[in-house]
C-alpha cells in the first residue's frame, strides 16, 4: 500500500465485510506531539477470542478455503506502523465489534503520505447506498477538525440521496474544502 488512505480503505472494507452497521474512522494529526493516529471502530461481528492473537499474522485468515488464503490488511498496517516508530493495536469483543488503532510518528521518514483522503472518504460515504453503513468520518489536524456523517452530509450538500447524479462531485468538493480549512 502506497498511502495511509489506501490502508484506511482496505481496513474499512474489513469492517463492512464483518457486517458492521456503524463504522467510525478518525484520522488525527498532531505536529506538536509528533503523532499520526488512525482509529477504525465498528460494531461488526468482532473477532473470536482464539483468533485475536493471530489477526496480525500475514498467513492467518478466517475466509473459507478457495478464497484468498492470506489476510494482508492488518499485517501490512502493522508493518507500516512499526517502520514509522509506532504500533498497531486491535481490540475486539466477539459479536460486538472491533477497534483498530494505528499510531505512528508524524515526521518519521518511513511514514507513508496520507494520500487522497477526500477521495477515500467520498467513496466510503457513497458506498452507504449499497451496504447501509452509517459512517462517521473525521480528520483532525492539530487543533482543527471536521466530521462527516451520512445523513448530515446529505443535508449539508442539499441532496436527497447519494445516488443523486451530482452527489460524488458535490461530496468531493465539500471534503476538499474542509481539508483546506484544517490544514496550515
Could you walk me through the main structural features you see in this protein, from its secondary elements to its overall organization?
This protein has 184 residues and is an alpha+beta fold. The protein has one domain: Heat Shock Protein 90 (2-Layer Sandwich). The chain contains 5 helices and 6 strands; from the N terminus they run H-E-E-H-E-E-H-E-E-H-H. It has a 6-stranded mixed β-sheet with strand order 3-4-2-1-5-6. Strand 5 and strand 6 form a beta hairpin. Helix 1 packs antiparallel against helix 2, helix 1 runs parallel beside helix 3 and helix 3 packs across helix 5. It starts with a helix and ends with a helix. The mean pLDDT is 90.
Brief rundown of the structure:
The protein has 184 residues and is an alpha+beta fold. The chain has helices spanning 4-17, 72-83, 117-131, 150-157, 167-182; strands at 22-30, 35-42, 87-93, 97-105, 134-141, 144-149.
Amino acid at each position: 500500500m502506497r498511502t495511509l488512505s489506501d490502508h484506511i480503505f482496505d481496513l474499512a472494507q474489513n469492517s463492512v465485510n464483518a457486517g458492521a452497521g456503524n463504522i467510525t474512522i478518525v484520522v488525527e494529526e498532531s505536529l506538536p506531539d509528533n503523532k499520526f493516529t488512525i482509529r477504525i471502530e465498528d460494531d461488526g461481528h468482532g473477532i473470536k477470542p482464539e483468533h485475536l492473537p493471530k489477526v496480525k499474522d500475514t498467513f492467518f485468515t478466517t475466509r473459507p478455503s478457495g478464497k484468498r488464503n492470506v489476510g494482508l490488511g492488518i499485517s501490512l498496517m502493522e508493518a507500516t506502523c512499526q517502520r514509522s516508530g509506532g504500533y498497531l493495536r486491535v481490540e475486539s469483543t466477539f459479536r460486538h465489534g472491533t477497534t483498530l488503532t494505528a499510531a505512528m510518528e508524524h515526521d518519521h521518514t518511513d511514514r507513508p503520505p496520507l494520500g487522497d483522503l477526500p477521495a477515500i472518504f467520498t467513496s466510503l460515504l457513497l458506498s452507504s447506498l449499497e451496504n447501509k453503513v452509517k459512517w462517521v468520518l473525521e480528520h483532525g489536524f492539530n487543533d482543527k477538525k471536521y466530521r462527516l456523517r451520512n445523513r448530515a452530509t446529505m443535508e449539508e450538500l442539499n441532496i436527497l440521496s447519494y445516488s443523486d447524479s451530482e452527489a460524488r462531485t458535490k461530496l468531493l468538493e465539500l471534503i476538499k474544502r474542509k481539508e483546506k480549512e484544517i490544514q496550515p
